[in-house]
Amino acid sequence: MDITAPRGTNDIMPYEVRKWQYLEEQIRSICRRYDYKEIRTPIFEETVLFQRGIGDITDIVEKEMYTFIDRAERSMTLRPEGTAPVVRSYLEHKMYGGPQPIKLYYMGPMFRYERPQAGRYRQFHQFGAEVIGACVPEVDAEVIDLAMHLYYSLGLDELELQINSIGCPLCRGKYREVLRAALAGHRESLCSNCARRYERNPLRMLDCKEKRCKEIMTDIPSIHEYLCDECADHFQRLQGYLNALSISYVINPKLVRGFDYYAKTVFEVIYRGLGAQDAIGGGGRYDGLIETYGGPSTPAVGFAAGIERILLTLERLGKELPFQSQLDVYMIILNEAGKKLGLPLLKDIRGRGFKADIDYMGRSLKSQMKAANRRGARFVVIIGEDELSKGKAIIRNMKVGTEEEVPFDEVVERFIEIRLETDQGVLMCRRR
After folding, report:
1. Considering the entire predicted model, what is its pTM?
2. Structural domain harbouring 373
3. Do 266 and 236 belong to one domain?
4. Which of 222, 297, 385, 400 has its CA 20 to 30 A from that of 177?
5. 360 and 249 in a common domain
6. What total of structural domains would you count in the chain?
7. pLDDT tens digits along 313-364
8. Does residue 176 belong to any structural domain of this protein?
């Protein structure tokens, strides 16, 4: 029997993991600059958390959640998104009792049972940022700025930021009735999803990808005509802050996002090269979500991006991540006596922070030199019979081809000198 990874999941191999690690470090670095703190929530939660927060009539809750009954007969769900667990943690640990706002970020696997496609899997990985406890539009602008800062830091400058306001429950309720009235004569032409959404969640019809539905929606009145004064002012001020931050954007009045908890600001970051599912991140304001869980009235805004989709976008655009994958030192030991001296030396080299490795296959000097080249080693340390008799190792600079003999007890210090010389050289170049 052939055993393979479940459909919609994949192994992230070592040569790919280095890209993930670089991206994760970029995320952490940027979040630290904005003073966001990392939070880690469970991979599974009680199902009701997502039913109540995301919405019973969303595609995720109706068709895509991985839900199971545990041994205590409780319904549990592998998390399909990160905001609801963060809000649950905010309430459970009474974070609302401390200074506000609370600024958090997370990274980790999410799970949705959907059709696998480019950059979209049943187990996928997501980064998200949340600001809980502030209602002003400059916070919305900061979350958007953080997201765009990450993309720009990766070299992704061929993206489009789309923004919209879907209003508060009051003005959105009025707009739902306007939508139903405008589409009443087209119900027979709607796709099956939109026909179902017509009564239960009409705003979700606005971003349907079916061609005939998109044509029907072309002349639908804009939600902006029905925003209350507060929502209209919030959206206008958000645009002002984005302009001040020099962040380009496009207003898309049909952008609604897929979760019921959104209100006022919504946004998506688009890369057209991904096909129909072209968003690589998005988010918005969810001022009423915490009340839905029985908490105090608390404004909040957040953003999430798929790690796989970011990496796919980088690949499609031909962008290379500048991670350091080469070895500092490759040690070649040619006999048993050399191993007893060389292995402690290798340990000391690693202990001083150098990335170092050794051959364990007993190959010839020529084969090991080839292996060092393949591994991109900057230096090779050679310990053979001649070196043992002299009490000195050979350090070979693989880039320029020079060699020097160094007493065994001075090898580590020599590498520290080389590192210092290299660092000073880089510093001098930067100063120039």
Report:
1. 0.86
2. 329-423
3. yes
4. 297
5. no
6. 2
7. 999 999 888 877 689 999 999 999 999 999 999 999 999 999 999 999 989 9
8. no
C-alpha torsion sign, points 374, 379, 383, 387: positive
* Residues 125 and 252 both lie in one domain: yes
Report yes or no: 165 and 171 within 8 Å, Cβ to Cβ. Answer: no
Reading the block at residue 117, the tokens are: 């496609």
Between CA 164 and CA 252 the distance in angstroms is 6
Closest CA to 124 of 311, 384, 322, 383: 311
Mean pLDDT, residues 366-386 taken together: 94
In this structure, of 33-37, 332-336, 418-422, the range with the lowest mean pLDDT score is 418-422
Do 369 and 295 reside in the same domain of the chain?
Answer: no
Ranges 112-121, 132-141, 370-379: which has the least confidence: 112-121
Longest CA–CA separation in the chain, Å:
95
131 and 41 in a common domain: yes
Burial pattern 10-29, b for ≥16 Cβ within 10 A else e, equals: eeeeeeeeebbebbeebbee
Q: What is the reported pLDDT for 425?
A: 47
**DSSP structure string for 60-115:** IIIII--EEE-TTS-EEEE-S-SHHHHHHHHHHTTGGGSSS-EEEEEEEEEE----
Say yes or no: 111 and 239 in one domain.
yes
Beta sheet of 44-46, edge-to-edge order: 44-46, 75-78, 67-69
Average the pLDDT over 386-404 and give the result.
94
Provide the pLDDT for residue 1: 65
Radius of gyration of the chain (CA): 28
Shared domain check, 339 and 262: no
